[in-house]
Amino acid sequence: MNKNEKWLITVDLDGTLLNSPKGSYPNYSINDENIKELKKVIKAGHKVAIVTGRPWRDTKDIYENIGLKTIVANYNGAYIHHPNDKGFIPAKFAMNRNIIMEMINNSDLKKVTMNMLIEYEDFSQIIDDQDEKMMEQFHITKNPKVQTCKLNQEIEEDPYSVTFRINPEKINPNRLLVILKRQYGNSFLFRYWTNWEKTMVNLEVNQKASTKGYAMRYIAAYYNISSKNTICFGDGLNDIEMLSEASVGVAMSNAKGIVKSYAADVTDYSNDQGGVGKYLNNFFKEL
């Protein structure tokens, strides 16, 4: 590897770049080691891009804190945009509202849905806005355009992301996943994840074409960086495509075993220990 070649570094946020939340949301806390090393590689001429499942409203503060001036991928790659370039045409991968409505009314999903959040480009809809845990978890209070909706309400716009808070006591989550994949697997990607306290089971749905792996390829092409000069960091199931796609896919030490199995390497330190920063420091020393 040539020291003079420029690299693209793509980073996930929750569980990767950010510290674990300490009992309250929203969480924008970054280990100082991570900020220091990211600023160092940026100064050296490399590109750093955030690729996250979060919406832009929950990415903006972190983006500015690091001092980024690059493309951002939100909603797991469903919305790729450039906050500092008004002439940039975003890449959008919204879901077909008619198929989403059909899925929402699926009897198996309907009977286990406790709450539902629908994310659009500039507003959100939620069934129960008194659900404090979900409102905090998704930082909905930061979005001035929040509407309440009903489970069977007509969707008037193609959304980027739909998240269901489900009751795992009413159906085995893996069984539900099999049912939904059989019926809608050609259109959508389905991923489960829980909050840090393990008190919520969330089923996240995105358009099948929108993955973090695609987002990384798109950003690399935009900056004319070879795929062999891509490095990424992630910890979750939604990072698997990106970890597989990158030349150097790095899973966090705090990631689950299945995520690590898709990575080329694993950090020695967790997200709370500045794992991303420490890895980058060693990586560019060895180039």
Summarize the structure.
The chain is an alpha/beta fold. The chain has 11 helices and 14 strands. The strands form 3 sheets. It has a 6-stranded mixed beta sheet with strand order 8-7-6-9-11-10, with helices on one face. A 5-stranded parallel beta sheet has the order 2-1-12-13-14, with helices on both faces.
Description:
- The chain has 287 residues and is of the alpha/beta class.
- It folds into two domains: 8-92 and 210-286, Rossmann fold, CATH 3.40.50; 97-207, 2-Layer Sandwich (Hypothetical Protein, Haloacid Dehalogenase-like Hydrolase, Chain: A, domain 2).
- It is 30% helix and 21% strand.
- It has eleven helices and 14 strands.
- It has helices spanning 13-17, 32-43, 60-66, 97-104, 107-110, 132-137, 173-184, 212-222, 240-245, 257-260, 275-286, and strands at 8-11, 47-50, 72-74, 79-81, 91-92, 113-119, 124-126, 146-148, 161-166, 188-194, 201-207, 230-234, 248-251, 265-266.
- The strands form three sheets. The chain has a six-stranded mixed sheet, covered by helices on one side. Strands 2-1-12-13-14 form a five-stranded parallel sheet, sandwiched between helices.
- The longest helix is centred in the first third of the chain and has 12 residues, at 32-43.
- The mean pLDDT is 91.
